[in-house]
Amino acid sequence: MTITLLPQEIENYANDYTTPETPILAALNRETNLKRGDAVMLSGHLQGGVLQMLSCMIQPKTILEIGTYTGYSAICLAQGLTEGGQLHTIEIDEELEDMAAKYITQAGLRDKITQHIGAAAELIPTLPESFDVVFIDADKSGYENYYDLVFDKIPVGGYIIADNVLYDGEVVLPEDKQSKNAKAIQRFNDKVKADSRVQHLLLPVRDGLMVVRKEKG
Ligand SMILES: C[S@@+](CC[C@H](N)C(=O)[O-])C[C@H]1O[C@@H](n2cnc3c(N)ncnc32)[C@H](O)[C@@H]1O
Questions:
Q1: Ligand 1 pocket residue status of 90, Cβ below 6 Å
Q2: What are the boundaries of each domain within the chain?
Q3: pLDDT in tens, the chain (217 residues)
Q4: Fewest C-beta in 10 Å: which of 43, 60, 127, 216?
Q5: CATH number, domain 8-74+84-214, options 3.40.50.2020, 3.40.50.150, 3.40.50.1390, 3.90.1150.10
Q6: 93 lines ligand 1 (CB under 6 A)
Q7: Using CA atoms, how far apart are residues 62 and 87, in angstroms rounded to an integer?
Q8: Counting beta carbons within 10 angstroms of the beta carbon of residue 199, is it exposed (0 to 12), middle (13 to 18) or buried (19 or more)?
Q9: Distances in Å between the alpha carbon of 110 and those of 107, 113, 175?
Q10: Counting beta carbons within 10 angstroms of the beta carbon of residue 133, is it exposed (0 to 12), middle (13 to 18) or buried (19 or more)?
């Protein structure tokens, strides 16, 4: 199962006309679905393709991912890294570390991806690097804080990409009908919209991707 706000046949068509998943990503997708009840969290074929394409267009030297899960989006984003580039990915659930590590190694990315286990809010300030791209895909209540924590680590011209910004369509419901997470996402979207330092684009792909470009510090 995947989250999609598109009619299923349009989603299928888009998948059909998108470069197929590599065998390694397909195996990772399959194992995640077999072993985890929460596999809906995995980016999947179409969104993974968007992340990979954006990364290849940006050609970042450094990427920070907040929310590794089983490693699908990390493997997609790492495809665009320049020679010698590094992706750092943070995951709070240590039980996910080995599965992500297995596929990162199989994808030949062991020397390009560093896994960090712990709470993102505590780990981000300890990461010295600056990041050309930050992908926010962890607990929704943390998004606003993660945005503030990473903003000064991003150079002008760098990007923040945030997942689930449509929150299964709940963002268009009246506030009293929104879940706690949808309200947190709404606050995040409002924060980005009010930030005069950035250009932003909400892509209605899967569950919504907010692409933010830093224009000034
Ligand atoms: C939606 S999943 C990430 C999916 C992954 N990016 C992908 O596309 O395959 C969110 C992940 O964030 C992790 N997470 C939740 N709260 C966190 C926190 N405070 N710090 C770090 N990771 C957290 C969860 O354990 C979960 O694995």
A1: yes
A2: 8-74+84-214
A3: 457 788 999 999 999 999 999 999 999 999 999 999 999 999 999 999 999 999 999 999 999 999 999 999 999 999 999 999 999 999 999 999 999 999 999 999 999 999 999 999 999 999 978 999 999 999 999 999 999 999 999 999 999 999 999 999 999 999 999 999 999 999 999 999 999 999 999 999 999 999 999 999 8
A4: 216
A5: 3.40.50.150
A6: yes
A7: 6
A8: exposed
A9: 8, 6, 44
A10: buried
Q: Please identify, by atom number, the ligand 1 atom nearest to the C-alpha of residue 65.
A: 6
Global pTM?
0.98
Q: 71 C-alpha vs ligand 1 centroid, how far in Å?
A: 10
Of all protein residues, whose CA lies closest to atom 11 belonging to ligand 1?
Answer: 67
How far apart CA 129 and CA 14 sit, in angstroms, is 36
Radius of gyration of the chain (CA): 16
Coil, strand or helix: which one is 73?
Answer: helix
